[in-house]
Design goal:
The chain is of the alpha+beta class. It has three domains: about 90 residues, no CATH class; about 130 residues, Lysozyme, CATH 1.10.530; about 120 residues, Tetratricopeptide repeat domain (Serine Threonine Protein Phosphatase 5, Tetratricopeptide repeat). About 55% of the residues lie in helices and about 5% in strands. The chain is built from 16 helices and five strands. It has a five-stranded antiparallel beta sheet with strand order 1-2-4-3-5. α6 packs across α7. It starts with a strand and ends with a helix.
């Protein structure tokens, strides 16, 4: 076997399929293949050999390419990350983070009393506030956006300073300032869609365009908040999961600590009582995925998506699980569905590349 790098970081690996007795003795060999790579017929187990090469030699390469191979007329297998002709076939995809989203998703129940109290004090609909927080941070008080927005209601630095917030990650301070700021926009523009647009894009943008700004992100934001407003109006119990909250929290802790079996048991009980809980279905799927039960993981990721079409984490993980199961076309379809709800340009570009690579693989 010969492996060489070009200045452009391309790797070329030549693998000759030879009889076992054709290999030189250890004293003469520059390197020797491990015995498990030799079959009883004396041939290299090519797939595993290629996989090991990819694993060992592609670490320093850019993650913006797949790994391709082809076998020439002399039986030499060529491997590269930059195919120079149509003879190469995709061997491995290298773009995806193979584990996807690994942390469980909470319902936000722990903040319920605070949100309810601020809702009554400010005179703003409780389901609407839940919808804004769900859209802004997915109930993560430590959330930080690429633009610097922080906390449950994703306050920008200028906003939290204007309302005297000293710690934007403090739940009560963040909620108080965020709700006051939204109430101000609602009083200013007197329409929910315009108040939401102002909260997302700034009041200046609403005034500039005399309505909802023509921004894809802002229009998607308004649609998503209204979806969750309706969701929480109809399914209030799915926030607190009465009677199943202990199992949910124990499952959450088990999944966080790596006890996947215990987590699966707890979340199975929650799902039996609340089959419509997207968070419980997602967490159960995650427990199954981590324990290698991929078919069951796929089934529960799909249930989570059926209950919440904006569940991006479920789309992402499901696409990866489908590929691991060899269901390439299902993986492509899931990535395409993910793109309907992903608005970040860099992420969209990366996912389109996933789809392109998988398309090559599906056509082989």
């Amino acid at each position: 076997m010969g492996i060489s790098r070009t200045p452009g970081k391309t790797i070329r690996a030549d693998i000759f399929l030879m009889k076992k007795d054709a290999f030189p003795q250890p004293a003469e060999a520059a390197c020797q293949l491990p015995p498990f790579l030799i079959s009883t017929k004396g041939r290299i187990r090519t797939f595993f050999f290629l996989f090991l090469i990819a694993l060992c030699f592609w670490g320093p390469l850019s993650v913006q390419a797949g790994i391709y191979s082809y076998k020439d007329q002399d039986g030499c297998i060529h491997i590269t990350d930059r195919p120079v002709n149509g003879q190469y076939k995709l061997l491995l995809t290298t773009l995806k983070r193979p584990k996807g989203f690994e942390r469980p998703i909470d319902t936000g129940a722990r903040y319920n009393d605070d949100i309810l109290g601020y809702s009554e004090k400010a005179g703003i609909s409780y389901p609407l506030l839940l919808a804004i927080i769900k859209t802004e941070s997915n109930f993560n008080p430590q959330a930080v956006s690429p633009k610097g927005a922080r906390g449950l209601m994703q306050l920008m630095p200028g906003t939290w300073k204007m309302y005297g917030v000293t710690d934007p990650f403090d739940v009560k301070q963040n909620l108080g300032a965020g709700i006051a700021y939204f109430r101000e926009q609602l009083a200013r523009f007197r329409r929910l869609d315009l108040a939401l647009a102002a909260y997302n894009a700034g009041p200046g943008a609403v005034e500039k365009y005399g309505g909802v700004p023509p921004y894809e992100e802002t229009r998607g934001y308004i649609e998503k908040v209204k979806f969750y407003q309706d969701y929480y109006s109809r399914k209030k119990n799915l926030l607190t999961l009465p009677g199943a909250e202990k199992n949910f929290q124990e499952g959450y802790q088990a999944l966080t600590s790596g006890d996947d079996q215990a987590a699966a048991g707890r979340f199975s009980q929650v799902v039996r009582r609340f089959p419509g809980s997207p968070e419980a279905n997602f967490n159960l799927a995650l427990a199954y995925e981590k324990s290698g039960r991929l078919s069951r993981a796929a089934a529960f990721y799909r249930k989570a998506i059926e209950q919440n079409r904006y569940f991006k984490e479920a789309y992402y993980n499901l696409a990866i699980v489908f590929e691991r199961l060899g269901r390439i076309r299902n993986s492509i379809e899931t990535w395409q569905a993910y793109l309907r709800y992903e608005i970040r340009p860099d992420e969209r570009k990366q996912v389109r590349q996933y789809i392109k690579e998988l398309g090559h693989l599906a056509r082989q």
